[in-house]
Amino acid sequence: MLLIYNTIKALEPRKYFDKIARTRLFPDQEYETIYLDDKSVEFQMFTHLLLTGSELSASQGSEYDEEIFETIYSFVQARKPILGICHGHQMLARYLAGDEYCRRAIQPEFGFKSMKITDDELFAGIQNPIFLESRYDEVFDLPPEFKIVAANETEAVQGFRYKNLPVWGIQFHPEFLFEDGEDMLQKHLTENPQDKIYYRNDLIDKMHLEQNLRIFTNFINF
């Protein structure tokens, strides 16, 4: 059974991720969701771990770091599949490689941006992808045991796989389609107008984003 670790602190975005997990990402999949500060989780009953994005900063650290690392540890030791998204990607890199491989981004990213991907199984069925980006932190210069599976001109480590295990981190957000993704981005840019210079939209057809949901199917079938 899948375990979703929803590390979003703000109530409404946290509830929204729960909604799209139920209706869009895993409509036919049995899973359980836990949140920050949840205690006494029996990790051995779960087969897969999904680490969500978060408004927390991985480069700056938070009071929840050890709690998140403990969860990652349980799944890595058992060699179970893990997928980290955005903050989850960064926390995976910190745990597996070290704190020094995550930093405040040289250039933040916001918008819908083209991506180069490898033929890794996580991306089966996805062609010429464009993904939603919303980040201030980045993972960089990972050790050789990490295979880079996604990159763009702004960030060389948009996705990694660890030691050919079913352990992936992806910087982007494949869970968002155009309407909800653009709403989220425009809200952020309204509240943080200094970030408008980083916004880019490479989309020609908004329906192109729907193929990104295959990442979740590919992950859960691994």
Q: How many structural domains are formed by the residues?
A: 1
Number of strands: 11
Instruction: Please state the second-level CATH architecture.
Output: 3-Layer(aba) Sandwich
Structural class: alpha/beta
| Straight-line distance between termini | 12 Å
Approximate helicity band: 25-40%
Cα-atom radius of gyration: 16 Å
Q: What string gives the helices and strands in order?
A: EHEEHEHEEEEEEHEH
Basic shape = globular
Low-confidence runs of at least 5 consecutive residues: none
Q: How much beta, percentage-wise?
A: 25-35%
- Biggest beta sheet summary: 8 strands, mixed
Mean pLDDT: 96
Q: Oligomeric state of the chains?
A: single chain
The number of helical runs is: 5
The CATH superfamily appears as Class I glutamine amidotransferase (GATase) domain
Supply database-style keywords.
single chain; alpha/beta; Rossmann fold; three-stranded mixed beta sheet; 11 strands; globular
How would you describe this protein?
27% of the residues lie in helices and 27% in strands. By secondary structure, the chain is α/β, with parallel strands linked by helices. It has a single domain, classed as Class I glutamine amidotransferase (GATase) domain (Rossmann fold). The strands form 2 sheets. The chain has an 8-stranded mixed beta sheet, with helices on both faces. A 3-stranded mixed beta sheet has the order 7-5-11. A hairpin with a 4-residue loop joins strand 9 and strand 10. The chain is globular, with a radius of gyration of 16 Å. The model has no long low-confidence stretch (mean pLDDT 96).
